[in-house]
Inverse folding.
């Protein structure tokens, strides 16, 4: 019977041990999990987070600037539900979103007091403006009194396009009509139930007037035939806030993720991103987290 040389057997054993060590080392290097994936290694699947927000933060492009930074840094995937603030608040009350970014501070505070939301924080502000045709047939250009301008529009029965969607902008508009002592009615007053971008396009097509947040107007200005006519009224201040549906009422929400997003928005990094966001060379939002 043929026998194997002991030296050969030893050599084969040595090679086998070396191969096992090499494979084990390779697996050890490739199997490390990280939270951010910034070092090129694999990472855990991102957590899902639902953000319900007003159309102005979406239409202006602000979220496209901020959310990818948050997602990359903290390993989340944020789904944005863009709608009027009134609709967003209802979504949040039902627990159908994890976190809200909206702009109707009085309503927000009321709902916090009623126990529907927690952890509300101011994030940023800009202002509302009244826009209309360049030739301004009503003659309100240069006014700093929004209520007086609305009254003139009503008297002339010039086309006015309203959001009509219980959004933050619509709530502000209704408060200005109330201050003006006018109940807008008639064919000239068009309540369309649309977001800010669509309302601006409809207003431009009809060469009418509307109330808009400045950020969305600036973002779309080059596609519109509208100019700012009324600005500077203290009543046109536009505060944005962020908050979470009450986890005691909605235990299924991603409260940890919502808290992480709030902390990011109010952090120095988040506030700097807001301040640095510009369209056509103009700043759209001004950070004011406390």
């Amino acid at each position: 019977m043929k026998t194997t040389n002991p030296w050969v057997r030893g050599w084969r054993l040595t090679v086998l041990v070396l191969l096992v060590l090499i494979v084990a080392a390779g697996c050890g290097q490739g199997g490390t999990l990280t939270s951010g994936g910034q070092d090129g290694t694999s990472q855990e699947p991102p957590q899902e987070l639902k953000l319900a927000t007003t159309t102005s933060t979406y239409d202006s492009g602000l979220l496209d600037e901020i959310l990818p930074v948050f997602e990359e840094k903290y390993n989340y995937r944020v789904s944005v539900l863009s709608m009027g603030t009134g609709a967003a608040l209802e979504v949040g009350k039902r627990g159908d979103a994890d976190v809200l970014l909206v702009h109707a501070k009085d309503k927000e505070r009321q709902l916090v007091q009623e126990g529907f939301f927690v952890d509300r924080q101011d994030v940023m502000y800009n202002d509302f403006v009244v826009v209309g045709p360049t030739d301004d047939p009503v003659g309100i250009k240069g006014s700093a009194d929004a209520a007086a301008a609305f009254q003139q529009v009503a008297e002339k029965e010039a086309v006015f396009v309203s959001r009509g969607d219980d959004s933050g902008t619509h709530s502000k508009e209704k408060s200005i009509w109330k201050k003006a002592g006018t109940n807008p009615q008639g064919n000239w007053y068009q309540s369309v139930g649309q977001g800010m971008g669509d309302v601006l396009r409809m207003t431009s097509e009809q060469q009418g007037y509307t109330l808009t947040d400045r950020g969305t107007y600036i973002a779309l200005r080059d596609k519109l035939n509208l100019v700012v006519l009324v600005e500077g009224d203290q009543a046109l201040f536009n505060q944005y806030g962020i908050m979470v549906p009450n986890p005691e009422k909605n235990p299924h929400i991603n409260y940890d993720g919502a808290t992480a997003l709030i902390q990011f928005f109010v952090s120095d990094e988040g506030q700097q991103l807001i301040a640095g966001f510009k369209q056509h060379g103009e700043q759209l939002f001004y950070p004011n987290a406390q």
